[in-house]
């Protein structure tokens, strides 16, 4: 298979399995999405979705968030991990949104990445899902699958994003990155991976990855 045939196979298979996708993080508007994405760093969407209703009941706008102290925010978000940094980030970005952006989340990568605790991946999610601007946020699942599928070298998240944007049509980036995340969780996880259920890696996977899988399987027997 050529690389373009592999890409077409991935797109078709993901559309077959996930014809419709929803953003995994519960939110109501760009601000609540921004906060949810920030909270999801090194945590699970499930855990974030358990915490955000509690937080957003108290504060779902930058104005309301500033009525809480950093310590109060931290207490609420503790279960998602990295709470000291995340609480400071949430408070700090809420202040900047009010001071510089009239309390609204800016629709630009540059402005978003200037906010405390907001990196390129968080900005990409907000741009793609809140403002429908084509972006390809790369999380651990996408990074892993692009390597396993031999579509990227796995050298860095930056390289994976570059390769994904080069290989896949721009008009499907926003849907596709969610489809790959869902597939990674369901069929191609980091742990407890069953290659027999993973059609895409079986068909186009990197030879060294498949060989290592079978070698490990023999060792476990």
TrEMBL record:
Keywords: 4Fe-4S, DNA damage, DNA repair, DNA-binding, Endonuclease, Glycosidase, Hydrolase, Iron, Iron-sulfur, Lyase, Metal-binding, Nuclease. Coiled coil: none annotated. One of its GO terms (molecular function) is DNA N-glycosylase activity. Its cofactor is [4Fe-4S] cluster. Its EC number is 4.2.99.18. Residues 39-186 form the HhH-GPD domain. It comes from the Bacteria. It catalyses: 2'-deoxyribonucleotide-(2'-deoxyribose 5'-phosphate)-2'-deoxyribonucleotide-DNA = a 3'-end 2'-deoxyribonucleotide-(2,3-dehydro-2,3-deoxyribose 5'-phosphate)-DNA + a 5'-end 5'-phospho-2'-deoxyribonucleoside-DNA + H(+). Gene3D superfamilies: Helix-hairpin-Helix base-excision DNA repair enzymes (C-terminal), Hypothetical protein, domain 2. Binds 1 [4Fe-4S] cluster. It holds the Pfam family HhH-GPD. GO terms for biological process: base-excision repair, AP site formation. InterPro entries: DNA_glycosylase, HhH-GPD_domain, HhH_base_excis_C, Nth. Belongs to the Nth/MutY family. PANTHER family: A/G-SPECIFIC ADENINE GLYCOSYLASE/ENDONUCLEASE III, ENDONUCLEASE III. DNA repair enzyme that has both DNA N-glycosylase activity and AP-lyase activity. The DNA N-glycosylase activity releases various damaged pyrimidines from DNA by cleaving the N-glycosidic bond, leaving an AP (apurinic/apyrimidinic) site. The AP-lyase activity cleaves the phosphodiester bond 3' to the AP site by a beta-elimination, leaving a 3'-terminal unsaturated sugar and a product with a terminal 5'-phosphate. This is Endonuclease III. The gene is nth.
